[in-house]
């Protein structure tokens, strides 16, 4: 498997603040990798160093085989970054802006197709300054993907999106991943990480405190299950390592359907909150 991003011993300090305190990361080509962590954990700093927009104090970083501290023009054209749209495009329409950016890349995607994928076809002729915050963010995403990048960085991409726009954005990311684009995203939405990411890293206090498949992170898949049901006008629940046996016993007791039956294991959010409370 080819490695798209390799980071070893990355550190970055701002005055007294150790923003990144020794991060090691390997992100495979074609993978969707999510970086999670509380405010101030060091996510943006790490991602901006990988994008070549911030200098590092120490450590090795290789992104598509290049040190982002010494970027080449060819390398830049293979990297997609979602930035806040600059104010100087605010007078231009969505279509004009996306077409203009398409002109900067050798392998740009079709502007109208990208506008459709971010759900802005109805607004293609609208000036950017007349868009809502969430619509404007969708323009940012369109500009990040228009170049047909091999590696796409998304820093909190869906902040300000309504639920429908988020789902539409997820489909765009899934289709880009399906076509082989490597995607690195930071997000505060755990459902987003769970829906999109092959692997996640949880960053806390400038270090990685857990890393893995979101379905099994922190022992989620093998943690005790909670079986819940309704009985005698109240809600009952039981924590167990053998939920199937509990359900069978209940089915026998109720002679068929168990009222309001649920079987749950810790959510990604439960595991995440535990991880950031007790950084190792
Ligand atoms: N330019 C800067 N100058 C000084 N301190 C900074 C600078 N940028 C970030 N920091 C500090 O470094 C730490 C890490 O910040 P960073 O933006 O990387 O966190 P983050 O995980 O992306 O947070 P958020 O979820 O809030 O975006 C924070 O304590 C922040 O205050």
From TrEMBL:
Topological relation to the membrane, as annotated: Peripheral membrane protein
Keywords from the named record: Antibiotic resistance, ATP-binding, Cell membrane, Membrane, Nucleotide-binding, Translocase, Transport
Name of this chain's protein: ABC transporter
Occurrences of domain ABC transporter (ranges): 5-230
Organism: Planotetraspora kaengkrachanensis
CDD domains to which the protein is assigned, alphabetical: ABC_DR_subfamily_A
Gene Ontology terms, MF aspect: ATP binding; ATP hydrolysis activity
Places the protein is found: Cell membrane
An annotated GO cellular component: plasma membrane
Lineage, top ranks: Bacteria, Bacillati, Actinomycetota, Actinomycetes, Streptosporangiales
Pfam family, any one: ABC_tran
One Gene Ontology biological process: response to antibiotic
């Amino acid at each position: 498997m080819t490695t798209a991003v390799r980071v070893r011993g990355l550190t970055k300090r701002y005055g007294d603040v150790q923003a990144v305190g020794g991060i090691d990361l390997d992100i495979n080509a074609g993978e969707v990798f999510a970086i999670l962590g509380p405010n101030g954990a060091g996510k943006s700093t790490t991602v901006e160093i990988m994008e070549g927009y911030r200098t590092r104090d120490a450590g090795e970083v290789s992104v598509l085989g290049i040190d982002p501290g010494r970027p080449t023009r060819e390398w830049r054209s293979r990297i997609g970054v979602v930035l806040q749209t600059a104010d100087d495009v605010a007078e231009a329409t969505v279509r004009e802006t996306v077409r203009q950016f398409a002109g900067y890349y050798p392998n740009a995607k079709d502007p109208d197709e990208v506008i459709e994928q971010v759900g802005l076809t109805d607004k293609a002729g609208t000036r950017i300054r007349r868009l809502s915050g969430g619509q404007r963010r969708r323009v940012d995403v369109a500009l990040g993907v228009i170049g047909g990048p091999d590696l796409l960085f998304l820093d909190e991409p869906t902040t300000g999106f309504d639920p429908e726009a988020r789902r539409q954005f997820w489909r765009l990311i899934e289709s880009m991943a399906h076509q082989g684009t490597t995607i690195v995203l930071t997000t505060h939405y755990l459902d987003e990480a769970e829906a999109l990411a092959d692997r996640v890293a949880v960053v806390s206090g400038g270090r990685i405190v857990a890393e893995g498949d979101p379905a099994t992170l922190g022992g989620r898949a093998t943690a005790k299950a909670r079986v819940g049901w309704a009985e005698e006008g109240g809600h009952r629940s039981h924590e167990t390592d053998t939920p199937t046996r509990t359900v069978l016993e209940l089915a026998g007791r109720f002679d068929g359907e168990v009222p309001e039956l649920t079987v749950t294991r810790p959510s990604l959010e439960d595991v995440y909150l535990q991880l950031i409370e007790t950084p190792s």
